[in-house]
């Protein structure tokens, strides 16, 4: 009898370990591989397409409903980011618009911190292609949208990172470089759980805010710190080269 109970406990533990976790808590490895390959920005387009297909296939096989839409939107966002790095405007807009639409559909079923934060990331990058239309409409709203994510999950680091990114990157009255630098730096504390791309983005945002407040020597060091996560990232290498 004891052996039977022990077997059931082991099975239950195994099911828990291999069960699909909420995206707020854990990202699947197939998505992480795609994301990191895009941020590294030294892979061929064919390689990225293959990783994208694998991540989407895994999503379709293991998720459903709002979480499925959210994960596919994440895949579309990083695919759009890859096109952005390649200066492929047409495909960047295509995938970013798909990420925005998918995130909204996901939230119509069930709002989560990760789906809301994904929306802000896609909106922010998409605005780079239409600063005086799309950008003016959405960028000022991103901090408030991030607050919705934070209200749902007060420890979701990526939501704070996106909120503070507006302070770091956008001029007044919406941004505030000094305030952004202080708040962004606070996220490096070990109490905040972070993915690899979170560390990278926090360092880049902090470096940019330092640069804009004429602390360029420090900014260069933080761009270099960001590059320890993704050494070949094109955007960060350019930012470091331009920081003079």
User: Structural class, from secondary structure content?
Assistant: mainly alpha
Number of strands: 0
List the total number of helices. 13
Q: Between the first and last Cα atoms, what is the distance in angstroms?
A: 73 Å
**Stretches with pLDDT under 50, minimum 5 residues:** 2-18
Cα-atom radius of gyration: 19 Å
Secondary-structure element order, N to C? HHHHHHHHHHHHH
Proportion in helices: over 70%
Residue fraction in strands? under 5%
For the largest beta-sheet, the strand count, sense and barrel status come to: none
Mean pLDDT: 92
Give the overall shape, derived from the CA principal axes: globular
Describe this structure in words.
This protein has 244 residues and is mostly helical. The protein contains 13 helices and no strands. The protein has helices at 2-18, 29-40, 45-62, 65-85, 89-109, 113-126, 131-138, 142-152, 157-169, 177-186, 196-212, 216-227, 234-242. Helix 2 runs antiparallel to helix 3 and helix 2 (29-40) runs parallel beside helix 4 (65-85). The longest helix is centred in the N-terminal third of the chain and has 21 residues, at 65-85. It is globular, with a radius of gyration of 19 Å. The N and C termini lie far apart (73 Å).
